[in-house]
Amino acid sequence: MFNLRYHIASLVAVFLALAVGLLLGGVVVERGTLDRQRDSIVKSLRDDFERLSAENRELSGRAERHERFAEELLPGLLAGRLAGRSVVILVDPSRRDVSRPVRDAVRAAGGEPVTVRLRFEGFGLDETGLASALPGLPEGDAAARAGALADALAAEWLADAPRPVTEKLRLAGVFDGDELPEGPPAAVVAAASWQTEDGEQRADAVAEALLARMAAGGVPVAAVEVTGADTGCVRAAVAEGLPAVDHADTPEGAVSLVWVLSGRAEGYFGVRSGSDAAFPKLAE
After folding, report:
1. SS3 of 168, please?
2. Of 1, 120, 143, 217, whose Cβ has the fewest other Cβ atoms within 10 Å?
3. Higher pLDDT, 142 or 6
4. Would you say the pTM of this structure is higher than 0.85?
């Protein structure tokens, strides 16, 4: 015999069945929707990947063509720009990555690279005891001593006269390499740096000071680095308002360096933030 409790239980069962049915139906519908959305997203990502891959291949091919084109043009751009001129290159023993492209660029421009390899930081004033052997150098203040030594060297290098300070440094083993030109060099490049105790690189203080003194004497100068190598040389030069090239290992860097050393351009040329341009204007 049916009673009220039976009717209530029946209604509850019906509503539960409806609820479960609606829930299951919703899940099925939602699952189908999610599957369609997933398929759409996967297809979109696959299309984007194929498009980007095609663009990357095109850009890579274009970059290779541009690089070959620049390399083909480079000899013609550099030829004769430094004809018969001597260029002194100040480097430390670890900077072969810089000295090679600089020497190559100078030679391609018809110049004569003169490599001076520094064996001690600060031209060895502390390590060799030369501070007391060289007259006129102040005691205590490292920056003042670096400046005084740079003054003495610049005075000798800018004049066609004996070079007693330079000779003392060479005999003490402070630097070696090619023989300096008898007269004033046509240009000077600084690429000498040393590692600090915290692992950073800093430019040689005397080399950078000498670069400034030579520039003041009318000699074209440049601080040089290769792509991706922050040795502190470029930063130090730019801070003093001196020309710099931070990508000497590239065709654009070779052109920039030769243009600066030949007096055709001034500024900071490179690929880093803060550079004036990647290369100077090539028009005469």
Report:
1. helix
2. 1
3. 142
4. no
